[in-house]
Amino acid sequence: MVRDYWHLDAAPFDGSLEPATFYCGAAQDEALARLEWLVEEGQRFALVVGAEGHGKSHLAATAVRRLGGLGAEAVLLSLRGLSSGDWLEMLLDRLPLDAASRAEPLRSWQKLENRLRENTLLERTTALIFDDIDRAPADALDGIMRLLGAAEPRFARVAVVATATPAGAARLPGGLRDRAAVRVDLDPWDAHDVAGFLAHALVRVGGRDDLFTPEAAATLARFTGGVPRTVARLAHLALAAAAGDHCDRVDAATVERAWRELAPDAALPAAAMSADVCDEPNGNPRVKVVRRLFG
User: Fold this and answer.
1) Total of domains in the chain
2) For residue 187, is pLDDT > 70?
3) Which of 170, 113, 165, 176 minimizes the C-alpha distance to 141?
4) Same domain, 149 and 180
């Protein structure tokens, strides 16, 4: 119903991690620039840190394409939920080994080293992107440390990118954290980024870039705190609510109603309201009027 009402080719806020749905806000632009520097300068390790919902996995998926555009052989492996002993075989599955190389009676680590050597001889960087390194089994962390710490020539053109939450990054072995030539902290989107994301997502599926009024976009940014995952969820609900009300555009009042549906038990963020405060006769401050931002 929503797609038909707004004349959209697909759902604009479906949470897909496809590179085509990626929106490059200020934080994402800076992160990708630093990862490109990592590869161009022959550095070994970058750590991308962001809270849940800040787009680490989407950034990692996009980085595969961006680093590949620099000539690197880039692969992505999520370490979340893997059992001990699984990571290396799964990494090899993602590398473009030929049938003969896969069939060789060698240990998995030897196969990985052979591929790294081949790429080094071709003067090609191997970019290994590990999502959720803070959820990795111990043997995966040991293997990544081995990749980063080895001085042999075959490891010279290996670049490792890993993502983690702030708390998870603090739990990583100190020797691993200390090897990061680059640390990228993913900050939330600001209001300008949120408005840009809404327009980008809608235009991508054939919609108008002004379906959300400026006030609606600002309100959405305020309620969500600029967390990309929450921005997409609230935008989806607000778009559906406006369609149900047969509106021409999504306004701020509709965003507020959708937010209450998304988090009915949550208090509105302090930034979402503006309070005029005056003093009681006894000197205690009280809220005189809480001005609605939604008309």
Assistant:
1) 2
2) yes
3) 176
4) yes
**16 phi, psi to nearest 5 deg:** -65, 145
- Whether 35 and 179 map to the same domain: the answer is yes
8 Å CB contact between 157 and 188: no
Whether residue 151 is found in the same domain as residue 137:
yes
pTM: 0.85
C-alpha span between 16 and 126 (Å, rounded): 26
Q: Quote the CA–CA distance of 170 and 168 in Å, as a whole number.
A: 5
Question: pLDDT tens, 125-163?
Answer: 999 999 999 999 999 999 999 999 888 888 889 999 999
The CATH number linked to 229 is 1.10.8
76 Cβ neighbours under 8 A, 6+ residues apart: 60, 61, 63, 64, 94, 129, 131
Residue 111's domain comprises 26-185
Q: How many CA atoms lie within 13 A of 119 on its CB side?
A: 24
Mark whether 36 and 165 lie in a shared domain: yes
Q: Tell me how crowded residue 228 is: count the other CB atoms within 10 A of its CB.
A: 26
